Structures are given as C-alpha cells and as structure tokens.
Backbone:
C-alpha cells in the first residue's frame, strides 16, 4: 500500500506550521518563477512568487476559519470559507488573461497564463498543509516547463508564410513546382495588377514543416528569383508562449 502524500488540514494550525506553508509556497514560486525569468517572460520571478504566496495566504485564512463555518443562531448569513480559494483562482484568471496577447496570427503568453494558474493551485495546496501533493505538483511543473520545452523544440510543426512575386503574364507562375523540391507547398491566394509596371503580382501561401530549433532556411528566397521577382515575403502563424 502507498502512503498518502497529504494530511488532513488541521482546524488549529500552529505558527511553525503556517510559516512552513508560506516558506514552501515561496520556494515553489521562486523555482518556477526563476525558470520563467530566465526565459525573459513577463510573469517572472516576483510575479510567480506573489501569486503563490497570495494563494497560500488565502488557503491559510480559510483553514483558520474552518471551525467558524455555518450559520449562527443570531445570524442571517452563513460563512463558506472554501470560497476564499475559489476567489483566488478567479482573480488569477484576470492576470492570466492579461498575459495572453494576440497580434493577428501571433499569440503569446498562453504558457505564462497556465503557469500562473498552476502556481495558484500549488500555493493553495501548500496553504492547506498538503506538502506532499504541492511538492509533487511543483516538481512536475518544473519538468513540464524545463524538460518538455526541449521536446517542444524538437517537434516538427507547420509553418506558414506569404510570398508575393511579380510576373509579366496574366496566368500565375507554377510556384508549387518550383518550391516542391525544397519541401514547401504553395497555394495561390491573391492576384493584383500593377498598371505602373504592367505586371501582375501574385501572392502565394507557403507551407512547410520544421522544428523550432532549426533556423529558417533562405533557400526558397534564392530559388524563386530565378524565375520571377520577389515583391514580399512575410512569416505568419508563428506562436510563442
């Protein structure tokens, strides 16, 4: 039989116990925040620590008020102290929403928002005295942010770009045939006529697969000018966190 990793939340925790909860929540926030700070993300060391401490304090306050739950004989309202942690999770949702930014097809901050959310849960666990559960959650979070980041860089994923070329003919060039040997796909998306130069400008959506650790190749930009003039090349659909 496995020993449980957590204990029951005592109705009357001692001060050494409370200090230990806060210090462990601070340590977890420090370790996770250090990972985010080293990668230059907005929610770095101090933000992560403060989120964890806020969650721990809210859970400690709920713990200390456990024996006051219910409705008194002379009261019209009942106290539900477990709403404290729920309120903290809701508040962190606003922080996470502020961390997520979208500019066109570029989306950033999703992992940062998720880190704030999991740090809140870890803080609540430490604040509730669930040291084993919170410790395992901290370790798994660090593994996810550090080790799986390396795995994520290895995954070959789709990348997209818009390539516009000028061409003297009213029918588009066979760009698909040009770029296929390099592993690219091309699909015509727009056609314009430049009357000042009496030329047509064709825009193609390029698609290819590569891992994020591989530097983008400029081979396609060296190949296409052999047949037609490049007007514009723009990467789209790149996502970061």
Residues:
């Amino acid at each position: 039989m496995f020993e449980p990793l957590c204990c029951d939340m005592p109705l009357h925790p001692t001060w050494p116990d409370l200090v230990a909860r806060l210090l462990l929540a601070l340590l977890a926030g420090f370790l996770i925040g250090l990972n985010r700070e080293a990668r230059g993300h907005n929610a770095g060391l101090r933000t992560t620590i403060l989120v964890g401490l806020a969650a721990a304090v809210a859970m400690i306050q709920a713990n200390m008020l456990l024996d006051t739950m219910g409705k008194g004989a002379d009261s019209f309202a009942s106290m539900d102290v477990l709403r404290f942690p729920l309120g903290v999770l809701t508040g962190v949702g606003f922080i996470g929403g502020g961390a997520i930014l979208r500019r066109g097809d570029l989306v950033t901050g999703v992992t940062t928002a998720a880190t704030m959310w999991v740090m809140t849960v870890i803080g609540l666990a430490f604040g509730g005295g669930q040291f084993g559960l919170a410790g395992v959650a901290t370790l798994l979070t660090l593994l996810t942010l550090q080790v799986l980041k390396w795995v994520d860089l290895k995954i070959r994923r789709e990348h997209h770009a818009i390539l516009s070329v000028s061409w003297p003919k009213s029918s588009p060039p066979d760009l698909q045939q040009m770029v296929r040997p390099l592993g690219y796909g091309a699909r015509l998306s727009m056609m314009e006529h430049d009357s000042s130069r009496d030329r047509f400008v064709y825009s193609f959506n390029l698609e290819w697969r590569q891992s994020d650790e591989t530097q983008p190749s400029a081979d396609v930009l060296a190949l296409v000018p052999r047949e037609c003039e490049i007007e514009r090349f723009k990467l789209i659909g790149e996502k970061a966190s």
